[in-house]
Amino acid sequence: MLLLCVAGAFAVYGPALGNAFYNDDALFLNHAQRIVEHPARLLTERPIGFFRPVYSAFVVLEWLLFRLRPAGSFALGIVLHGVTTFLVYRLARRLLRATAPALLAAAAFLCLFGHCEAILWIAAQNTALLCALAVAAVLVHLRALELGGWRPALLTLLAVLATLYTKEPGVVVLAWIPVVTAAVFGVRRCLTARALRIFALMLLGLVLFALTNSRFTQGVSGEPASQGAESRTSLSSLSVPRLLVVSSALLVPAPVVDSEWPWWPGLLLLAAVLLGTLLLRPDLLGAAGASVALLITGAAPACITTILQANGSRFYYMPTVGVALLVGVVASLPAGPGRVRGIVRRAGAALLLVGCVVHALAIQDLNARDYRPSSQRQTRYALEVSDSLRAAGDRPVFLLDPPMRPMHVGEFLQLFDGVASSRVRHDSLARSRGDAVLAALRARDPTAQILGWDDARGLAPVEHLPAEHMGEDLARSGQPPHLSTRVEIYRIAPP
User: According to the model, what pLDDT value does residue 442 have?
Assistant: First the structure.
């Protein structure tokens, strides 16, 4: 089953093997290099302010195995998705006490469009790793309750700590464990001495996590206005309508923005599943309730973004576990005479598999239109900038309207050529005629090399690019989309 899940992951995400490095990939790979040189930095260095040593160790493994070969990193991410799918299958089998519905739940999880960014972008693989560890922690806890003793309890604690120190949304595992425990063993089992001992250890783990991750605790306690998109938590943006939006939008094989998607389909969907379970399979009501709880709690930390799917969908890898489990619950519901029940179940399975194919094709289409060309463009741009810096020698270089943020340019240059990211500075000029922009830049530094980017020609001196590349009409043309009424300028200082 594990090999089948991994093979299915490659069937869905195999085209990502042709992608290149993109945005924050260089940031984390540079971090991994520094850890390899000085291992203590695993515990002292925090690239974006958060303390994520488990994820950092994962990136170190990627760096040691693949270096500057992105295909290897994507392959590892796809394998990780297959392993997570296998763990979801195991969890579904425990909840539903049947293999066939668990298989359908795993198939749904494997192909859902909503979590594609976590596999199509190397830097977003931390969410897939987070989900795998969270589901594993739940399964380890269930086993610990069956075995008893301190050793299984400590294994549960280690699994929870690994989840927390991978990424901050891992705190939802503290809700997932008691919810699934109640669904599998009954509520009373949560109040036994064996369970309470494990919960006490988990509470100590949470305290340790809070004490060692100050940026997370500041995000919880700070005012929403003072929190950035990366640092705030779901507490300032959490709402019932938003969670209901997520509940149904994750079934859609297309990009979705929450302002364009109503909340009431999510309410109808959850109510229909719970009511149908109550009427047809009351013995699975606990499993249905747990599935809804995993969906809602998994979606709560993701409320910091207004993007539900496509770019930004890495936030929704966790709640897709709940969606997949709900699919398994629905697959368990058909009642009636054996022959009729068999026909209904086969028809439902066929419909689900068609949906899986549609989602998989949508993922591959999104990759072909967005992630692959964007990543290849950024990597090509960074490599050409590296070549230009070597050719410029001791002269500074101006980059006009780059297709990357200054932080990403600096990190890519450091990754490919060891260029200090501190050499990259950002500025801008009011957009006017191209010759006026060039005159202003030459007045700043007449020795500088001034380069612009064109997708067809690549990086070149602006004199060799089309005249409209910097003209006033460019701001109104909409091509490329990152340009506005100002010319973005990155100055790269000489060594």
Answer: 85
Tokens 């400590």, residue? 154
pLDDT in tens, 310-360: 666 788 899 999 999 999 999 988 766 677 777 878 888 889 899 999 999
Burial of 451 (0-12, 13-18, 19+ CB in 10 A): buried
**Tens-place pLDDT, residues 220-262:** 665 554 445 444 444 566 788 888 888 888 888 888 776 678 8
DSSP state of 427: E
Report which residue type is found at 154. L
**C-alpha separations of 232 from 217, 261, 315 in Å:** 9, 24, 13
Dihedral in degrees, nearest 10, Cα atoms 67, 3, 152, 137 = 70
Task: Please report, rounded to a whole number, the percentage of residues in the chain having pLDDT higher than 70.
Answer: 88
Which two tokens mark 28? 């984390």
Using alpha carbons, list the distances in angstroms from residue 403 to 378, 424, 435.
7, 15, 21
DSSP state for residue 186 in the 8-state scheme? -
- pTM, two decimal places: 0.90
Beta strands in 250-403 (DSSP E): 397-400
pLDDT band at 477; cut points 50, 70, 90: very low
Cα gap 388→265, rounded to integer Å: 54
Answer left, alpha or beta for residue 310, where phi above 0 means left and psi between -120 and 50 means alpha.
Answer: left
Q: Which of 94, 216, 239, 331 is nearest to 247 (CA)?
A: 239
Would you say how long the chain is, in residues? 495
Give the C-alpha separation, 16 to 10, whole Å. Answer: 9
Helix (H) or strand (E) holding 363: helix 338-366
Exposed/middle/buried for residue 189 (C-beta within 10 Å: 0-12, 13-18, 19+):
middle
Q: Cα separation of 384 and 468, whole Å?
A: 22
* Edge-to-edge order in the sheet of strand 424-430: 424-430, 486-492, 397-400, 449-454, 458-461
